[in-house]
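Ticket #4471: structure export looks truncated?
Reporter: QA, pipeline team
Priority: medium

Steps to reproduce: submit the single chain below to the structure queue and open the exported record.
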Amino acid sequence: QVQLVESGGGLVQAGGSLRLSCAASGRTFSMYVMAWFRQAPGQEREFVAAIRWSGGNTYYADSMKGRFTIARDSAKNTVLLQMNSLKPEDTAVYYCAAEFTAKYSSTWYTRGSEYDYWGQGTQVTVSS
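Actual output as written to the record:
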């Protein structure tokens, strides 16, 4: 009984910036991790970034470090993804995900199959 709604996607020129938002509603108490994944046409879903709801620890895919920043707004049950220096290869549908179950492996958060809830996605298109 949790819903995730992404917003903020759109068309941007290479080198520009976008900020994505994901608002969680419903039974969000004890939310454990929220994350962003993306899927480009013809490609597998790819891990982008994740954040621990308690403590705020952040995790990034290597290709995103230095360009993307994930943050949370606990009061609004919202996770943000600030995307800077965008490249055409960043073009994809970006999905928000949430996990409510504690995990015990070191890299579980990079696997989409571990997450309990997903949003519908928001399209990001970067033109050259």
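Status: closed, not a bug. The export was complete when the record was re-opened. Leaving a note from the reviewer for reference: Residues 33 and 52 are 5 Å apart (CA to CA).
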